[in-house]
Give the backbone structure.
Amino acid sequence: MEFFLQQTVNGLTLGSVYALVALGYSMVYGVLKFLNFAHGEVYMFGAFAGYGVLTVLGGPSALMVPVWLALALMFVGAVAVSSAIGVALERFAYRPLRKATRLAPLISAIGASFFLQAAALLLFTANSRSFDAPTLIPIQTGMPLGPINVWAIRILVIVTALVLMILLTWWVRSSRVGKAVRAVSFDTEAAAMMGVDVDRVIVVTFLIGSALAGVGGVMVGLVFGRIFHLMGFIAGLKAFTAAVVGGIGSIPGAMLGGLLIGFAESYTTAYISSTFQNLIVFGLLIIFLLLRPSGILGRPELVKV
Amino acid sequence: MRRRSIWKLVATMLALALVVAACGDDTGGETTSPVGDTTTIAGDTTTTAGDTDTTEGGTTTTGAQPVDVCEATVGFMGPITGEVAFIGEVQLNWFNYTLDTWNEETGYDFQMVEADNQFDTAQSATLAQQFLDNEAVLAAVGPAGSDQVDAAGAVYEAGDPNFTFISPSSTRAGITAQYTGMFRTVPTDDDQGPTTADFLVAQGATTVFMVDDQSSYSTGLADTTQENLEAADVTVIRESVSQDVTDFSALVGTIPDDANFVYLPWQVAANGTIFANQMAEQGKEAVIFGSDGMDSDDFLVAGSYIAAFAPDIAFVEGSESILEGYLEQYENTNTFGPPVYAAARVIFEAIERVCQTGQTPDRASVQAEVRNTDQADSILGSPISFTEDGDLAEGRFFIFQIQEDGTKTLVE
């Protein structure tokens, strides 16, 4: 039981991060119907921005401000940088290609991904960085859950992800801009004819999706420690898998997919073998693409014949 | 109006991003040559001790006057970018440092051609062909990894077996026997595996939890160590995880309570620290033993052990000044650096010996002299001479224990 509980907490933590990153994929796909393959790099820049703020504040062992404030500022820094990059990507890499063939923005996204990786290599070098979160919040700090102790950082990650997902769901369902996002996602031309500023909606979509990726980046840095310039690639693929499994274009689907992938990774390692972790995750992707391309919560696309 | 204000906001955020990124860059290494100006054309870089004007196909150099007419170009191939760029950056820095100090010391004007294989086998083969096609290149240092050595070695062997290449970090046993021109300045897994296993057995290991990182280096070393441990009746639980993974929580959860050692033959030392933190989080008390790839300031977990090519060169008599000189120009180093210095010196000295006989160095004569290498001492604190295959004749590994203050104490 202790073993299962521990692995569940591990899966929940990892799944929360995947869910946040998957939301960005899903939102952009929902609105523009294309995959923003540079999203993993936006997440990577968010992680570095959080690390930058931590360094400016004196680093984990010599913080000049209380820990809670440092954490809050790290998230703010990551959101600022990631959303700025996301908006810039939309403006310069995707908007000029909006009327081009569907392949063009996809290729542009791959190019943007490599550009951001190379930019990170130049800016931060290839050395990995550590948030050294156990110095910020000792590992022994946390909450007992039956026979195990859950580290406070893990609780922070899980709770933050849940709160952000709830807020996003509320925003999309209830706010004026959120409704506009849904309208554009449903039918761009009709939304434009009804007076919705489509360009603005797309910018807001990129801004919010990228901000969530930035938060995810800081979370990974905090809970897993190491950040490096190529960290966005695999995380991006896993989040993309999560988005497809949950139903790409569906916000609850992205959340569900993220959690499922997190649990799949954790339980595979625990009960099968760590060697097969990626095999299982990407096997899930293939199975869903073959059997249910619309994912668990996605709606099958209707095609006029 | 609203659109303009959005763009002002975006511009401000991007400026903030750059400031924050620059502030966060506190441990990066230098990648450019400290002495010469470096110009890159089509992926190759030529660096000299003086000022350099590079044009397609040729280099004009002005600077220190040579004391003798002995000219040579030596290649460097390593993973300067890509997933293990932390290795390539340090190796390139050490190569540049060796070249600069050699030219300064001798008055020669040796030059280098740099090739970034991104730790990729296909790139390694292509770049090896480029080295072969460039008649000026007499020999090369690199590649770093055994898979890349295989890719480049096949090209050299087919194109010109007289081309010498010295790997500063490939440790797979038996690989030198496959390529006429291959040498290396590091011991092999045949040395490291048994040394590690013997040490763990002597420390009372009964169950060892072993995790390879799915690279050729890691799996080969894990296999050898596992074989030796099992021969000594130690139970080995073998797992495998990709280098790109940074969450080991689930894997850590599977470490049995009776495992008294965790063996991590990894190349990304920072991952070892994460693994250790996650062990502490889940109350796992086994002691970590890291391979030479973990010998880095990124892994300073007190009580853990690491294997290394050599004693910390800061404590090797005669090597302290080399390290100091290096650190004056470059910010960081790791295990992968000093063997590059040793490899480059072997090649430079071989070329010099050819020059001293009055011959113009060519690939065959350089290889013959590399084979004759007999350094009584080296930066690594041990003699350098090669077996018939090209392995170090006296290769051995050292074991350190990491102390509370981050220093390393030699224990074997």
